[in-house]
Design brief:
The complex is a heterotrimer. By secondary structure, chain A is mainly α. Chain A is built from 13 helices and 2 strands. Chain B is built from 17 helices and 2 strands. Classes of the chains: A mainly alpha, B mainly alpha, C alpha/beta.
Chain lengths: ~325, ~450, ~240
């Protein structure tokens, strides 16, 4: 029983947590690619930016002496989301829209987004320094839920932290909301239409400028949510999401660029695969040790990939997907 | 390609700028900057071959610099007698055998179609072969690595002259670039960019974590110099201040020789039929293919050639700073910086790439003291009006350069997308006729 | 007054002009058909009306208002609608969503229009929840026309509506075009099936080299021996 709990803790929960973050980021990347046809590399730093916005607001609210049963950074999320969405739109107007107007190639926009990444990173560190911060204010505790499985013969608890539970709810709410938006609303359908066939969308009289605006607002909002939830789960650092921007791209590409549902599946797939790849099977196989043939014993570490190479798992998946099926496992768009 | 008037003016302005910085920062600092600049110019030239000539989006520069640096250390660092006296070489030999066996297994699986096993079955067999090969190799390399790390620390170097290390860095990086290029060059440009960013990270994690080979995060120091070092000069009676300047001058001379040789070669090739063909391929794939040019092979050629210069440049940087520290490599400092150099300088123009390298490296380095100056004044002002001083000015102003770099990219893309010294566009390519507008 | 008028339009994609002085004028009761050899600038003429091709000189008037170089998001609300030749449906959207996209500019209730489109193209009603990419060529053409009708246009422009369709569907599509016209929508179309299209056209324009070669009613053009000799050839 302990072995199963261990597996759930290490693979299912941590894989799903990571996968949710990847999914939220990948949806933004994939929507932007669908509408604007370029790989928005600055998406990771937009997530970090959103987390810092939430942090600032939480600190402000906290300074006013307000407290809540959930972390303040979570309480202020709606406002932080609005601010980040507007910032995302301003970034587009300032740095990408002029290039689009000139008819720049997708790769030029990709390089421009690297420029934006550097500016966001530089500014965040200029203002906040390079140190690590706790998203939980001093007076708040990170609540950890331990579920006891003693009645099933387990001695170890199933561990879930408060931010992880919040994250699952937020991800679920985002996905449902997005699904409703894309399939039921006029604007959402127009977004899908634009992503499907930009020329025809224009010919139909769809206001593609408006679609672009809405895309940035949604991508910015999701980035803020993902960044803040990630920062609540781990810690707030200036390189919070820059380090995971490649797994996010991997998720979007695996899911098929332009395909929001594919991005969700891709995110979870990569999150769980990463967790599985570094999982130490020895712990689970220990009960079978007595049955091993004479002279054999279980090695201390039986992980498929050493932990220090964890990051490479996503890249390997990314590269293999690009080579084997560049349009993604769930057919995506081609430019 | 002979520099035109615009190029000459731009370089004259650059020389004035560098001299002014020299007066401000002093000869010791400037000699360090120039040495770095020469290495970065070589790297930028490499990217210019790939991107400027061939339109290839290589974002794996950081990985190539790291591999070049590590190779250089392996060849030029003194021999580690502890390792050679231990069982390490024998264990590594076994790991090598396991590697070869694994490679044969995969190759065999790929040839299964000759025995009538095709399609999905062959695909599954190849997958299984890869997995088994991976397990076989891991079963040998893991204990070998653990043994070496616990007994002799790492394998050390071969103790060869550093310039040989640089050359070998070029060779090894060329080899790796060939493999990467063969796999990825068929990808669409933006996918290629993302794939190479990923590959760069994979290379980094290898150099960072293969402690037995590279010493990993423990860092290797001091990497030997190819010319007399300050302490050698001090031993023969040169004053301490002068010794640094002279030692660096010696190093700079050596770098300059390598750089000038590479530049002349690359420039001549660019002006010749080979360069024209490459640009023709870049500007119009389809037409080039229709003319019977093997586009993939040519692109691979460019990719490997550019990567050699990157490998050598990476090796030079390590030799000059005398330390190989895998944690010091960041995509910002080692990939994006080089891209900004080439874009700002003028992709497709070798003079432009070099101008960009010097200019951007100086801006990159000088952003820090400038930001400190700004912050100190701002801090004085905030103190004066009672808001208190700004904390951590040093670490914050170091970040200013990241912001400045991003700003420079954005401005360059928007206002000077062709760079400071744009490529000279010949209206007609003799081989392919008219260049397609906006293709 | 003509509903849509092109006067001596010169224009193209940026290089050498494709149109070298095209004159077209039709009324809202007309079916105008543009025919001509390959490369004559037929499709380009349609696109020039719809702002998809740059008009360098000359005039384009819709209900006497100049519309040259206006973008579709202004033209569609005025009452123009365009069915491109290729990629003219949103393949990943359902049939009904495709139709809704045609009505994007409208803020009023679109249900009546939707019903009348379904009435005109009964197969679409059956497949309303199916993804458009799964439909046959003829059905896709119906979706494309239906989508263009959803904005309740005064002028419907079609770029080779019969291209790539089987003969059975060609007749069907032409019937539907006649029906749309009977409902009071002006039609301006480019057609390869020249003989057949001129047969029901009230206005015909023969273009060659980006210029009008002949202009007249469909019947006049069919009867004109010069037209037949220079362009119609055998039977088309």
């Amino acid at each position: 029983m302990d072995e199963i709990i261990f597996l759930v803790n290490k693979v299912v929960i941590s894989g799903a947590v990571l996968g949710s973050i990847y999914a939220l980021g990948a949806i933004g990347v994939t929507l932007i690619f669908g509408i604007l046809r370029f790989a928005h590399f600055a998406h990771g730093d937009m997530m970090t930016m959103g987390a810092f916005v939430a942090f600032l607001l939480a600190a402000l609210v906290g300074a006013m002496g307000i407290t809540a049963p959930v972390p303040l950074a979570f309480v202020v999320l709606p406002l932080a989301v609005v601010i980040t969405a507007v910032l995302a739109l301003l970034i587009d107007r300032g740095f990408y829209a002029p290039l689009r107007a000139r008819g720049a190639k997708p790769v030029t926009l990709l390089i421009a987004s690297i420029g934006v990444t550097l500016m966001i990173q530089g500014l965040i560190r200029l203002v906040f320094g390079s140190g690590t911060r706790n998203m939980y204010l001093d007076i708040e505790d990170k609540i950890i839920f331990r579920m006891d499985f003693g009645w099933l013969g387990g001695t170890r608890p199933l561990v879930l932290s408060q931010p992880q539970i919040l994250m699952f709810f937020v991800t679920l709410a985002c996905i449902t909301g997005l699904h409703f938006f894309l399939t039921r609303t006029r604007m959402g359908k127009a977004m899908r239409a634009t992503s499907d066939n930009l020329d025809l969308a224009q010919v139909s009289g769809i206001n593609t400028q408006q679609v672009v605006t809405v895309t940035w607002l949604i991508a910015g909002s999701l980035a803020c949510l993902a960044g803040t939830m990630l920062a609540l789960d781990v810690n707030l650092r200036p390189d919070l999401a820059f380090n995971i921007v490649l797994p996010i791209f991997a998720a979007a590409i695996v899911g098929g660029l332009g395909n929001a549902y594919g991005a969700i599946a891709g995110g979870l797939l990569i999150g769980v695969t990463e967790a599985l790849a570094v999982f130490n099977w020895t712990a689970v196989l220990r009960p079978f040790a007595p049955y091993l043939p004479f002279g054999m014993e279980l090695p201390a570490n039986l992980a498929l990939v050493p932990t220090e190479y964890k990051l490479t798992v996503a890249f390997v998946i990314l590269v293999i997907t690009l080579l084997w099926r560049p349009t993604g496992i769930f057919r995506g768009l081609s430019t | 390609m002979i520099p035109d008037r615009r190029t000459l003016y731009a370089f004259a302005a650059l020389i004035v700028f560098v001299t002014l910085v020299g007066v401000w920062q002093g000869p010791a600092n400037v000699s360090l900057l120039i040495a770095h600049t020469l290495a970065y110019s070589l790297i930028a030239l490499g990217l210019n071959i790939q991107f400027g000539y061939g339109g290839l989006f290589n974002f794996a520069i950081m990985g190539f610099l790291m591999v070049g640096g590590a190779t250089n250390v392996f060849f030029s660092f003194p021999i580690n007698p502890d390792f050679w006296a231990s069982d390490g070489p024998m264990l590594l030999g076994r790991a090598l055998l396991a590697f070869v066996a694994g490679a044969l297994l995969v190759l065999g699986a790929r040839r299964l179609d000759r025995f009538g096993i095709k399609g999905k079955a062959r695909g599954i067999a190849i997958g299984i072969a890869w997995f088994v090969a991976y397990l076989v190799y891991r079963s040998q390399i893991d204990p070998a690595a653990a043994y070496i790390e616990s007994t002799s620390g790492w394998i050390g170097g071969l103790g060869l002259y550093p310039v040989i290390g640089w050359a070998m860095a070029g060779v090894v990086v060329a080899f790796i670039a060939r493999i990467i290029g063969k796999i990825t060059l068929g990808l669409r440009s933006d996918y290629l960019a993302i794939a190479t960013i990923g590959i760069s990270e994979i290379l980094r994690s290898f150099v960072k974590n293969m402690d037995w080979l590279t010493r990993g995060t423990l860092a290797v120091s001091p990497v030997p110099w190819p010319v007399p070092q300050p302490q050698n000069l001090q031993a023969v009676g040169v004053s301490i201040d002068d010794s640094f300047v002279y030692a660096r001058l010696g190093f700079i001379l050596l770098l300059a020789v390598v750089f000038v040789a590479a530049f002349v070669l690359v420039n001549r090739a660019y002006g010749g039929p080979w360069g024209r063909m490459m640009r023709a391929i870049r500007d119009n794939h389809v037409a080039a293919e229709a003319m019977g040019k093997n586009v993939r092979v040519r692109q691979l050629e460019l990719f490997v050639l550019g990567s050699i210069l990157m490998g050598i440049g990476g090796a030079m940087l390590v030799t000059f700073s005398q330390i190989l520290d895998p944690s010091g490599y960041q995509p910002i400092n080692h990939t994006f910086l080089v891209w900004v150099m080439v874009i700002v300088g003028g992709a497709g123009n070798n003079w432009g790439a070099v101008l960009g390298a010097v200019l951007i490296y100086f801006i990159w380095i000088l952003s820090d003291p400038l930001a400190q100056f700004l912050f100190l004044n701002l801090s004085r002002w905030t103190e004066a009006i009672g808001w208190g001083a700004i904390p951590e000015i040093d670490s914050r102003s170091l970040q200013m350069r990241v912001f400045v770099l991003g700003l420079v990219i954005s401005i360059a893309l928007r206002y000077a997308p062709q760079g400071l010294i744009p490529e000279i566009v010949h209206k007609h390519h003799p081989e392919l006729g008219h260049k397609k507008a906006g293709a | 007054m003509a509903m849509i008028e092109m006067k001596q339009v010169v224009g193209g994609y940026g290089g050498a002009p494709v149109l070298n002085g095209v004159d077209i004028a039709i009324d809202n009761t007309d079916i105008g058909v543009i025919v001509g050899p390959n490369g004559a600038g037929k499709s380009t003429a349609l696109k020039a009306i719809f702002g998809l091709v740059k008009v360098a000189s000359g005039e384009v008037l819709f209900e006497d208002r100049p519309i040259a170089n206006s973008l579709p998001d202004r033209l569609v609300p005025m009452g123009l609608s365009f069915v491109p030749q290729e990629k003219n449906v949103f393949t990943s959207l359902t049939v009904e969503e495709n139709l809704e996209m045609g009505a994007f500019i409208r803020r009023d209730d679109i249900r009546d229009t939707l019903d009348s489109v379904y009435e005109m193209f009964p197969p679409l009603k059956e497949k309303r929840h199916q993804v458009a990419g799964e439909l046959s060529g003829g059905q896709r053409q119906m979706v494309a026309m239906g989508r263009a009708l959803m904005s309740e246009p005064k002028l419907l422009m079609l770029d080779e509506p019969s291209a790539g369709l089987s003969p059975r569907y060609v007749g069907e599509i032409f019937d539907q075009i006649l029906k749309v016209n009977a409902a009071g929508v002006g039609i301006l179309m480019v057609e390869q099936n020249a003989r057949r299209a001129l047969g029901f056209a009230s206005r015909g324009f023969v273009l060659a080299g980006g210029k009008n070669l002949f202009t007249g009613t469909g019947k006049e053009l069919l009867a004109d021996p010069d037209v037949a000799a220079s362009f119609l050839g055998g039977h088309g």
